[in-house]
Write a sequence for this structure.
Protein backbone atom coordinates (compact mmCIF):
# COMPACT_ATOMS: atom_id res chain seq x y z
CA UNK A 1 0.00 0.00 0.00
CA UNK A 2 2.86 2.39 0.77
CA UNK A 3 4.30 1.93 -2.73
CA UNK A 4 0.88 2.53 -4.29
CA UNK A 5 0.48 5.73 -2.27
CA UNK A 6 3.96 6.91 -3.28
CA UNK A 7 3.18 6.29 -6.94
CA UNK A 8 -0.16 8.06 -6.63
CA UNK A 9 1.48 11.02 -4.89
CA UNK A 10 4.09 11.16 -7.66
CA UNK A 11 1.26 11.10 -10.22
CA UNK A 12 -0.31 14.15 -8.58
CA UNK A 13 2.82 16.04 -7.48
CA UNK A 14 4.52 15.66 -10.87
CA UNK A 15 1.46 17.28 -12.53
CA UNK A 16 0.57 14.26 -14.67
CA UNK A 17 -3.05 14.47 -13.54
CA UNK A 18 -3.45 18.16 -14.32
CA UNK A 19 -1.75 17.55 -17.69
CA UNK A 20 -4.37 14.90 -18.49
CA UNK A 21 -7.07 17.43 -17.55
CA UNK A 22 -5.57 19.97 -19.95
CA UNK A 23 -5.40 17.36 -22.72
CA UNK A 24 -9.00 16.38 -22.01
CA UNK A 25 -10.17 19.99 -22.44
CA UNK A 26 -8.09 20.29 -25.61
CA UNK A 27 -9.79 17.18 -27.02
CA UNK A 28 -13.20 18.53 -26.01
CA UNK A 29 -12.49 21.70 -28.00
CA UNK A 30 -11.51 19.67 -31.04
CA UNK A 31 -14.67 17.56 -30.79
CA UNK A 32 -16.85 20.65 -30.42
CA UNK A 33 -15.53 21.93 -33.75
CA UNK A 34 -15.68 18.55 -35.49
CA UNK A 35 -11.92 17.92 -35.53
CA UNK A 36 -11.39 14.25 -34.81
CA UNK A 37 -7.87 14.33 -33.38
CA UNK A 38 -4.65 16.34 -33.40
CA UNK A 39 -1.94 14.12 -31.95
CA UNK A 40 0.83 16.71 -32.08
CA UNK A 41 -1.01 19.44 -30.18
CA UNK A 42 -2.40 16.99 -27.60
CA UNK A 43 1.02 15.54 -26.81
CA UNK A 44 2.58 18.99 -26.86
CA UNK A 45 -0.01 20.27 -24.38
CA UNK A 46 0.56 17.24 -22.15
CA UNK A 47 4.33 17.69 -21.87
CA UNK A 48 4.08 21.49 -21.81
CA UNK A 49 1.64 21.37 -18.89
CA UNK A 50 3.91 19.10 -16.85
CA UNK A 51 6.93 21.27 -17.63
CA UNK A 52 5.12 24.54 -16.92
CA UNK A 53 3.31 23.47 -13.77
CA UNK A 54 6.39 21.86 -12.24
CA UNK A 55 8.45 24.92 -13.10
CA UNK A 56 5.93 27.16 -11.32
CA UNK A 57 5.54 24.84 -8.32
CA UNK A 58 9.16 23.94 -7.72
CA UNK A 59 11.21 26.84 -9.10
CA UNK A 60 11.68 28.50 -5.71
CA UNK A 61 12.50 25.24 -3.95
CA UNK A 62 15.02 24.18 -6.57
CA UNK A 63 16.64 27.62 -6.63
CA UNK A 64 17.14 28.10 -2.92
CA UNK A 65 17.22 24.56 -1.54
CA UNK A 66 18.84 22.53 -4.32
CA UNK A 67 21.16 20.53 -2.08
CA UNK A 68 18.46 19.68 0.43
CA UNK A 69 15.84 18.52 -2.08
CA UNK A 70 14.10 15.29 -1.13
CA UNK A 71 14.50 12.26 -3.34
CA UNK A 72 10.89 12.66 -4.47
CA UNK A 73 11.51 16.22 -5.69
CA UNK A 74 14.73 15.16 -7.42
CA UNK A 75 12.79 12.48 -9.29
CA UNK A 76 10.21 15.10 -10.29
CA UNK A 77 13.03 17.35 -11.52
CA UNK A 78 14.41 14.59 -13.74
CA UNK A 79 10.90 13.69 -14.94
CA UNK A 80 10.18 17.36 -15.73
CA UNK A 81 13.40 17.62 -17.75
CA UNK A 82 12.44 14.56 -19.81
CA UNK A 83 9.01 16.12 -20.41
CA UNK A 84 10.72 19.32 -21.51
CA UNK A 85 12.77 17.36 -24.05
CA UNK A 86 9.59 15.74 -25.40
CA UNK A 87 7.91 19.16 -25.42
CA UNK A 88 10.71 20.41 -27.68
CA UNK A 89 10.35 17.36 -29.92
CA UNK A 90 6.64 17.96 -30.50
CA UNK A 91 7.26 21.70 -30.88
CA UNK A 92 9.36 20.95 -33.97
CA UNK A 93 6.25 19.37 -35.53
CA UNK A 94 4.14 22.52 -35.10
CA UNK A 95 3.94 25.39 -37.61
CA UNK A 96 5.60 28.69 -36.76
CA UNK A 97 2.24 30.46 -36.42
CA UNK A 98 1.15 28.03 -33.69
CA UNK A 99 4.54 28.33 -31.96
CA UNK A 100 4.13 32.11 -31.88
CA UNK A 101 0.84 31.82 -29.98
CA UNK A 102 2.32 29.16 -27.70
CA UNK A 103 5.23 31.53 -26.95
CA UNK A 104 2.78 34.15 -25.65
CA UNK A 105 1.30 31.76 -23.09
CA UNK A 106 4.75 30.37 -22.31
CA UNK A 107 5.97 33.85 -21.39
CA UNK A 108 2.95 34.36 -19.12
CA UNK A 109 3.73 31.04 -17.38
CA UNK A 110 7.39 32.06 -17.02
CA UNK A 111 6.48 35.44 -15.52
CA UNK A 112 4.01 33.69 -13.21
CA UNK A 113 6.97 32.17 -11.33
CA UNK A 114 9.92 34.48 -12.02
CA UNK A 115 10.28 37.73 -9.99
CA UNK A 116 9.95 40.81 -12.20
CA UNK A 117 7.19 42.97 -10.67
CA UNK A 118 8.03 46.46 -9.31
CA UNK A 119 8.27 46.51 -5.53
CA UNK A 120 5.18 48.67 -5.06
CA UNK A 121 2.99 45.90 -6.57
CA UNK A 122 4.33 42.67 -5.13
CA UNK A 123 3.57 41.18 -1.74
CA UNK A 124 5.89 39.86 0.95
CA UNK A 125 9.24 38.88 -0.69
CA UNK A 126 7.83 37.76 -4.04
CA UNK A 127 7.83 39.66 -7.34
CA UNK A 128 5.92 37.47 -9.79
CA UNK A 129 2.45 37.44 -11.39
CA UNK A 130 1.26 34.77 -8.98
CA UNK A 131 1.61 37.16 -6.06
CA UNK A 132 -0.14 40.24 -7.44
CA UNK A 133 -3.15 40.77 -5.24
CA UNK A 134 -6.31 39.14 -6.58
CA UNK A 135 -5.21 38.03 -10.07
CA UNK A 136 -3.89 34.48 -9.61
CA UNK A 137 -7.05 32.58 -10.58
CA UNK A 138 -7.68 34.78 -13.61
CA UNK A 139 -4.15 34.33 -14.97
CA UNK A 140 -4.46 30.56 -14.66
CA UNK A 141 -7.88 30.59 -16.37
CA UNK A 142 -6.59 32.79 -19.19
CA UNK A 143 -3.64 30.46 -19.87
CA UNK A 144 -5.92 27.39 -19.81
CA UNK A 145 -8.24 29.08 -22.33
CA UNK A 146 -5.33 29.83 -24.62
CA UNK A 147 -3.85 26.33 -24.38
CA UNK A 148 -7.10 24.34 -24.56
CA UNK A 149 -9.21 26.47 -26.91
CA UNK A 150 -7.27 28.85 -29.14
CA UNK A 151 -4.07 26.88 -29.76
CA UNK A 152 -5.80 23.61 -30.81
CA UNK A 153 -8.15 25.52 -33.13
CA UNK A 154 -5.51 27.81 -34.61
CA UNK A 155 -3.28 24.80 -35.24
CA UNK A 156 -6.13 23.34 -37.30
CA UNK A 157 -6.79 26.57 -39.20
CA UNK A 158 -10.22 27.08 -37.64
CA UNK A 159 -11.54 30.60 -38.11
CA UNK A 160 -12.18 32.54 -34.91
CA UNK A 161 -15.95 32.74 -35.22
CA UNK A 162 -18.43 33.85 -32.58
CA UNK A 163 -18.79 30.23 -31.45
CA UNK A 164 -15.05 30.04 -30.74
CA UNK A 165 -15.23 33.09 -28.50
CA UNK A 166 -18.30 31.70 -26.72
CA UNK A 167 -16.43 28.45 -26.04
CA UNK A 168 -13.45 30.50 -24.81
CA UNK A 169 -15.67 32.42 -22.38
CA UNK A 170 -17.26 29.17 -21.21
CA UNK A 171 -13.84 27.62 -20.67
CA UNK A 172 -12.67 30.68 -18.72
CA UNK A 173 -15.73 30.51 -16.44
CA UNK A 174 -15.31 26.75 -16.01
CA UNK A 175 -11.64 27.00 -15.03
CA UNK A 176 -12.31 29.85 -12.59
CA UNK A 177 -14.97 27.73 -10.85
CA UNK A 178 -12.65 24.72 -10.95
CA UNK A 179 -10.05 26.81 -9.08
CA UNK A 180 -12.43 27.85 -6.28
CA UNK A 181 -12.17 24.56 -4.29
CA UNK A 182 -8.38 25.03 -4.32
CA UNK A 183 -8.69 28.59 -3.05
CA UNK A 184 -11.12 27.50 -0.34
CA UNK A 185 -8.78 24.66 0.70
CA UNK A 186 -5.77 27.01 0.82
CA UNK A 187 -7.44 29.66 2.99
CA UNK A 188 -5.45 28.47 5.99
CA UNK A 189 -2.15 28.74 4.06
CA UNK A 190 -2.46 31.76 1.74
CA UNK A 191 -1.20 35.16 2.76
CA UNK A 192 -4.04 37.62 3.25
CA UNK A 193 -2.26 39.93 0.82
CA UNK A 194 -3.01 37.49 -2.00
CA UNK A 195 -6.64 38.65 -1.83
CA UNK A 196 -8.04 35.39 -3.18
CA UNK A 197 -11.76 35.22 -3.88
CA UNK A 198 -12.64 33.37 -0.61
CA UNK A 199 -10.47 35.81 1.35
CA UNK A 200 -12.30 38.80 -0.12
CA UNK A 201 -15.92 37.58 0.00
CA UNK A 202 -15.90 34.51 2.25
CA UNK A 203 -16.52 30.83 1.53
CA UNK A 204 -20.32 31.03 1.30
CA UNK A 205 -20.32 33.90 -1.19
CA UNK A 206 -17.53 32.22 -3.13
CA UNK A 207 -19.80 29.22 -3.63
CA UNK A 208 -22.67 31.49 -4.67
CA UNK A 209 -20.35 33.20 -7.15
CA UNK A 210 -19.38 29.78 -8.48
CA UNK A 211 -23.07 28.95 -8.93
CA UNK A 212 -23.65 32.13 -10.93
CA UNK A 213 -20.60 31.46 -13.12
CA UNK A 214 -21.75 27.89 -13.77
CA UNK A 215 -25.23 29.09 -14.77
CA UNK A 216 -23.57 31.46 -17.26
CA UNK A 217 -21.29 28.62 -18.39
CA UNK A 218 -24.30 26.46 -19.21
CA UNK A 219 -26.66 29.01 -20.75
CA UNK A 220 -24.00 30.45 -23.08
CA UNK A 221 -24.62 27.29 -25.12
CA UNK A 222 -27.87 28.83 -26.41
CA UNK A 223 -25.93 31.65 -28.09
CA UNK A 224 -24.01 29.23 -30.33
CA UNK A 225 -24.94 28.79 -33.97
CA UNK A 226 -25.27 25.06 -33.52
CA UNK A 227 -25.75 22.97 -30.39
CA UNK A 228 -26.91 19.35 -30.20
CA UNK A 229 -29.14 17.76 -27.57
CA UNK A 230 -26.22 15.52 -26.54
CA UNK A 231 -24.02 18.57 -26.03
CA UNK A 232 -26.67 20.31 -23.90
CA UNK A 233 -27.07 17.19 -21.73
CA UNK A 234 -23.29 16.86 -21.39
CA UNK A 235 -22.88 20.52 -20.39
CA UNK A 236 -25.73 20.12 -17.88
CA UNK A 237 -24.03 17.11 -16.28
CA UNK A 238 -20.64 18.86 -16.14
CA UNK A 239 -22.30 21.93 -14.61
CA UNK A 240 -24.01 19.87 -11.92
CA UNK A 241 -20.97 17.75 -11.03
CA UNK A 242 -18.77 20.86 -10.82
CA UNK A 243 -21.35 22.56 -8.61
CA UNK A 244 -21.46 19.47 -6.38
CA UNK A 245 -17.70 19.52 -5.81
CA UNK A 246 -17.76 23.26 -5.19
CA UNK A 247 -20.58 22.83 -2.66
CA UNK A 248 -18.64 20.09 -0.84
CA UNK A 249 -15.49 22.21 -0.62
CA UNK A 250 -14.29 23.55 2.71
CA UNK A 251 -11.04 24.51 4.43
CA UNK A 252 -10.49 21.09 5.97
CA UNK A 253 -10.87 19.07 2.79
CA UNK A 254 -7.92 16.79 2.05
CA UNK A 255 -5.29 17.54 -0.57
CA UNK A 256 -6.68 14.71 -2.73
CA UNK A 257 -10.20 16.18 -2.88
CA UNK A 258 -9.17 19.09 -5.06
CA UNK A 259 -5.91 17.84 -6.57
CA UNK A 260 -7.43 14.57 -7.78
CA UNK A 261 -11.24 14.62 -7.72
CA UNK A 262 -11.85 18.23 -8.77
CA UNK A 263 -9.18 18.08 -11.46
CA UNK A 264 -10.76 14.86 -12.73
CA UNK A 265 -13.87 16.73 -13.93
CA UNK A 266 -12.39 17.63 -17.35
CA UNK A 267 -11.35 14.00 -17.81
CA UNK A 268 -14.86 12.85 -16.88
CA UNK A 269 -16.28 15.41 -19.34
CA UNK A 270 -14.20 13.90 -22.15
CA UNK A 271 -15.17 10.34 -21.21
CA UNK A 272 -18.85 11.31 -21.39
CA UNK A 273 -18.34 12.68 -24.91
CA UNK A 274 -16.44 9.56 -25.99
CA UNK A 275 -18.66 6.85 -24.52
CA UNK A 276 -22.16 8.28 -24.13
Amino acid sequence: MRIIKQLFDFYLNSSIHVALAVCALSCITLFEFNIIYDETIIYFNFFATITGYNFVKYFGIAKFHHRSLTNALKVIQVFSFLCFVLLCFYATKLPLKTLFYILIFGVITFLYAIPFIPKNLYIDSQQNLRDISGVKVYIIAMVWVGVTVFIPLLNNAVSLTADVYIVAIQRFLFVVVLMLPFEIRDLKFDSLKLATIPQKIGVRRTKLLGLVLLVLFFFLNYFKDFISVKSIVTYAFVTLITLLFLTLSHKKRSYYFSSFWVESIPILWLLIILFC
User: Anything to note?
Assistant: DSSP finds eleven helices and no strands in the chain. The radius of gyration is 19 Å. Residues 2-275 form one domain. Residues 10 and 259 are 12 Å apart (CA to CA).
